[in-house]
């Protein structure tokens, strides 16, 4: 499929377009945060604690009197960064392991894949909790933990693509013409594995944001006073009877961002990888 | 299904569990500090520390330590909790049943509503219902369930106080422990009031936990049904004059069930993960909340036990799904 066809198809996909609009919205908010936020997200004002939404504070204020709208706006930067960095952390080792496993097969394959099975033996959130607890709770370690947890997913996807590509005529031809392993892997196999990787990485951004927010919610992620959406929700939980807006807005923001990635990923999948459409 | 296949899978399960124990063993030793101090907490006396070091073989080689650790686990001894001083195995068992009750309830909700929505969507493909249901399914998988839980608490326990906010049963209505499943125990005790109370307590957390699996089941059911509805045998059934309901439920849904069962099984694992968050929000005294509490209390013996139990559950579920799959689809048996 040519690039032009791809963009025409993407433009026609309602879900990809909607997803793109939502993602763009949050990216713009993250980029221009300091200019559009009405107040400083960290400075407390004890006199206006837990106020509901009003003309002055569109999203109300939190338990320290900080403007919730500003905190949600600044939180967009953190969540986007979490998504990008965590996905990179799982994508790079996952792809390399998948390439090696699928291409060389035999013992290398079984060692790598058994290790991946081991990581998959835990529920994702539990493994992430365990890793952050060992590394000490922080935003950086949250990204590392979420990244590690999803390495096996990429390794498996890449491996299965490599397995089908390896038997193809063009790969065998290059091999017979004297192409080295590294050259075949990087120049010929990797580019053909990209479509499923791109689709999975897009969907994975949503998952990473959700998992990181869950860690933040459990107090294992970003620490106060950071305006991370999950940590804000955790604070909102204490005031759910008095001031439900403290929990409502950060959660809605997470939903919009994750929905954006999922919609865009679904649309991308239909265009790039029609074989997966039935999923 | 051959006995050989089952034993091969059981061997595989044992292998994975062994690997998991190695990982947990090494990870706990990666935490900076003395493991004996970690297991006993900072207020342990020097004698206690010395005794545990001796017991765990901490002054011996890593290999000997691993041997002691694994033989204890095989005998069901996962050490003592530093918070309650009770054996971890017993503590986990009580909470596991509570988690099981919650997960089973969530699974029932997810299966029933998920399949119903999926079938409706497939039968009325491209209708407003179809688009609406599939959009809601996407929202379902994109939603942080801890947020949904909080919003449900606000709506149904604060704004309109119809359901309780937390716990498993109202104070004073406790029933004698028979199965550990509160709803069942209430029935056994013959107390209608307790039964209603237990059910009301179960409703919000179970629904919260059910959202993601429900959304996934709806999507899978829809796509499996769409595939099946175009088959010749469905057309034949219609041509024979069967009513649409019989065609949909007896001929189509039965054949669409295979992928749905697989996804249901895989989602049991998801439920276990989701239980960690749901139980925290609703103060449900299950395994998920126990892990989080143990971690914040630096109760590593408990953490280690929970992780092993979670991994074992996941492995058993995956095995069960594969076996059910073989029973449901005779073609797999032939190919084996």
Write a compact overview of the structure shown.
The complex is a heterodimer of chains A (279) and B (336). With 279 residues, chain A is mainly α. Helices cover 74% and strands 0% of the residues of chain A.
N-to-C span of chain B: 8 Å
* Tally of DSSP β-strands of chain B: 0
| CATH architectural type of the largest domain in chain B | Orthogonal Bundle
Domains of chain B, number? 2
What Rg of chain B, in angstroms, do the CA atoms define? 24 Å
Q: Looking at the structure, what is the overall shape of chain B?
A: globular
Total DSSP helices of chain A: 12
* Uncertain spans of chain B: none
Instruction: Figure out the total of helices of chain B.
Output: 14
- Helical coverage of chain A, percent range: over 70%
Roughly what fraction of the amino acids of chain A lie in strands?
under 5%
Oligomer: heterodimer
Tell me about the largest β-sheet of chain A: none
List the helices and strands and how they pair.
The complex is a heterodimer of chains A (279) and B (336).
Chain A: H1 3-12, H2 14-31, H3 33-36, H4 68-104, H5 106-120, H6 124-135, H7 139-149, H8 151-166, H9 169-176, H10 181-217, H11 229-238, H12 245-272
Chain B: H1 3-30, H2 35-40, H3 46-56, H4 62-74, H5 88-123, H6 128-142, H7 145-159, H8 182-189, H9 192-229, H10 232-239, H11 244-281, H12 287-296, H13 300-328, H14 330-335
Helix pairs in contact in B: 1-13, 5-6, 5-9, 5-11, 6-9, 7-9, 7-11, 8-9, 9-11, 10-11, 11-12, 11-13, 12-13
